[in-house]
Amino acid sequence: xxxxxxxxxxxxxxxxxxxxxxxxxxxxxxxxxxxxxxxxxxxxxxxxxxxxxxxxxxxxxxxxxxxxxxxxxxxxxxxxxxxxxxxxxxxxxxxxxxxxxxxxxxxxxxxxxxxxxxxxxxxxxxxxxxxxxxxxxxxxxxxxxxxxxxxxxxxxxxxxxxxxxxxxxxxxxxxxxxxxxxxxxxxxxxxxxxxxxxxxxxxxxxxxxxxxxxxxxxxxxxxxxxxxxxxxxxxxxxxxxxxxxxxxxxxxxxxxxxxxxxxxxxxxxxxxxxxxxxxxxxxxxxxxxxxxxxxxxxxxxxxxxxxxxxxxxxxxxxxxxxxxxxxxxxxxxxxxxxxxxxxxxxxxxxx
Length: 351
Known about the structure:
This protein is an alpha/beta fold. The protein is about 35% helix and about 15% strand. The strands form three sheets. It has a seven-stranded mixed β-sheet, sandwiched between helices. Helix 2 packs antiparallel against helix 8 (about 245-255). The model has no long low-confidence stretch (mean pLDDT about 95).
């Protein structure tokens, strides 16, 4: 007996990066932060009364929302919190795109977007990136919805604030979602600064990257009241208590420790730029990354991926059109990136 629904049979699930068992790996394949979370976050978790875990958490994550709102200069009612930005994005697809046609997505971007589009019956259309992997802003017009990652993944390339605003302006009848998972590593301004001008704009962020909290699963969105009311309605129809007590407490402490966040963020940017320069010196092409990873062109990317794997260095490779000649490399510690470059040098000499 086949118990799957027709929809489930047609889905092509997202494939996450390999999570190896055992030690000895240099893990540069899932864009995790190489540094530990804020010490203040660790202290906050220690102070939690464990007995209270018998109780449901605050369903509205009020204290965390207020902290986010205060730093971003928006009202707490304009902040929505969920279990990672993936959950926030999935709820947004349901709230704003389900049953609609002409929802525009870049043809090379976060692999979950087309999965959610299929899951929630959104008629998605892929918009080709330019040859240099930049987003063709002029191709995003008159849609019933738009989703872009800025900076984009896996390319690492960012749109300017003016370019993002042009996309929002050109699609007044659809929600424009700007996924800013990597914005803290970029040289461009967040689209959150546009929220007071555009009611169709939703900006989504995560604590997984620049706050070192991938294992805690917290993300958020900021937007106007109409959009946030829609997100809350869908959330409460699915799970009215999504973010746990530990996650709310830890995320708030990490978000408020601006000094530590800025220090580790800058270290990653410096390591990224230094590693990119080393790769270019070795003759490899690297896009202008504004993220915590590098997108590296290699003559035989699949062979290089295997060589790195055999040397216990994990990076990301996709055997897909347009990007099957590239590897995506998460920025690790200086020591990890030096080991990565040494391995690339050895392989280059063997060619």
